[in-house]
Design brief:
Blueprint: H1 12-27, H2 31-50, H3 59-81, H4 88-92, H5 95-100, H6 117-124, H7 131-139, E1 152-153, E2 160-161, H8 172-180, E3 188-198, E4 206-216, E5 219-220, E6 225-226, E7 232-234, E8 237-245, E9 258-267, E10 272-282, E11 289-293, E12 296-297, E13 317-326
Antiparallel strand pairs: 1-2, 3-8, 3-13, 4-5, 4-6, 4-9, 7-8, 9-10, 10-12, 11-13
Helix pairs in contact: 1-2, 2-3, 3-6
Length: about 325
């Protein structure tokens, strides 16, 4: 073993075992432990890439290792964001690749071709030397591989942007349109004004904003929407005053669903967007008027089951809801 208990020196069998442990934790809902295990294996794979020439790896083997590392990190990112854009089921599909790594070249089961440059760089854990290296990874993915919906980023430290609404059934936007199209009844629009958020250290956050989305049963049901960055702060509050209209009408929000809000900000030292805390409003409580929502510690639990209060002080996310006329 490496000093400090590292995994890389122990080779593919240990990576596979650690990966299977991560998938098991993930399927049990122990997502934070799973994320740490995914990151551990990804780090080992990155070290393998650094030693690829010394270990006489073939080009196909190098590509397989890269794709595995990217997939594990994308799942880790998804857990951190609290979404399921790349899921534990996607991770299970990687098992044959681990089992046959350096033994038999297996067709990679996931389509990574929609990962943009910024997200790819983060997942690779290194700066790409040139566009050719990026293309090498993306072009290596089989065209016929089953697609996974992955949020796109506009830059290394920019926000997630949802995929095209015309993509396949795994796309969350597609799921939302199917939900909305499942009834011919008139629906009412739901407008949510995100008024302000109370935080004891409200002055320290750079480029703060709120992400809003609807979720049910651990799945995001419509594209996420972001407020603009706040430029106003006063008396332990960061002010937004921005109104978001949900893609789903009031009548089509599923029973048991919730509207989730994530407070995010930019960390210059790490050059990334970080989620500080989150809040939610259950479907049954979606009523007109002002709502003060309790704040919970990250990571966001899209199922809204694992709740740990951020503070016991009277600091909340304040929103105001307006329900429109039937259309």
């Amino acid at each position: 073993p490496l000093p400090g208990g590292g995994v890389a020196a122990l080779g593919p069998q240990r990576w596979q075992k650690k990966f299977e442990e991560a998938v098991e934790l993930d399927s049990w809902g122990q997502v934070e432990e799973a994320r740490e295990a995914y990151e551990s294996v990804a780090q080992s794979l990155q070290q393998e890439l650094a030693n690829a020439q010394k270990n006489a790896r073939t080009q196909k083997q190098i590509v397989a290792v890269k794709n595995l590392m990217v997939s594990l990190r994308l799942r880790s990112f998804a857990i951190r964001r609290g979404d399921d854009m790349i899921s534990s089921e996607n991770m299970k599909a990687l098992k044959p690749v681990f089992e046959n790594l350096f033994i038999k070249d297996k067709k990679f089961p996931l389509d990574l071709s929609e990962v943009d440059e910024a997200e790819l760089k983060r997942a690779l854990g290194m700066e790409l030397e040139d566009d050719e290296n990026e293309a090498e990874l993306l072009d290596s993915v089989p065209v016929a591989a089953p697609a996974i919906s992955i949020p796109k980023a506009r830059g290394a430290a920019t926000r997630e942007v949802e995929g095209d609404n015309d993509s396949d059934e795994h796309n969350v936007a597609g799921q939302a349109s199917k939900t909305n199209g499942s009834t011919s009844k008139k629906t009412r629009t739901v407008k949510i004004t995100i008024v302000k958020i109370g935080l004891k250290d409200f002055e320290k956050y750079q480029d703060p904003y709120i992400t809003c989305f609807v979720a049910s049963g651990g799945r995001v049901l419509e594209p996420k929407q972001d407020t603009p960055n706040s430029t106003s702060r006063f008396d332990k509050h960061i002010n937004f005053g921005h109104t978001i209209t949900l893609k789903q009408g009031y009548e089509t929000i599923l029973p048991g669903a919730a509207i989730v809000f994530e407070f995010k900000h930019f960390k210059p030292k790490k050059d990334k967007i970080s989620t500080k805390c989150w809040a939610f409003l259950e479907r049954e409580d979606v009523k007109e008027g002002v709502h003060n929502l309790e704040l919970y510690k990250k990571p966001t639990d899209v199922k809204c089951k694992k709740l740990s209060l951020l503070t016991v002080k009277p600091l909340y996310l304040q929103i105001q809801i307006e329900i429109g006329e039937p259309k």
